[in-house]
Design a protein that fits this description.
The protein has about 150 residues and is mainly α. Helix content is about 70%, strand content about 0%.
Amino acid sequence: MYLLYLSMFYSICQVVNMIYYYVIGNLMASLREVFAGNLKKKRKKCGFSQANLAEKVNVTTHHIAMIEITRNFPTSDLMERIANALNIEVYELFIDEKSSLHKELEHFRKEIRNDMQQVLIEYFEKDKIDNFEDKFSTAVKPKHKNKK
């Protein structure tokens, strides 16, 4: 039963994430501006200069600079290399964090997560927690060696 609840929790979280990023992705004012701003912010957060990032993704510093000022737009392959170099997912470069909808959906996501945690807590607080504690204490019971 516990695995069923965890499976349901995981599935719900995945659906919420997909809806969240689909809505955010479709309501951005300017794809290039959002991408460029996020690239610059996340690059600096990682402590990379444009030259460092360019070297990591095998392009020129000028190309990275042109992307950050919206003159160029990267190919999907370059987006993946940039995301890997910054240790993020590609979609994170497209999220408009200034949008009020983004804030509302982030709040909604946190509420769902808290509600799901509460459901799991209530499930274990009933009669199942006793069985879990018995099994857990038996499984981790230290074995004492006789001193001779």
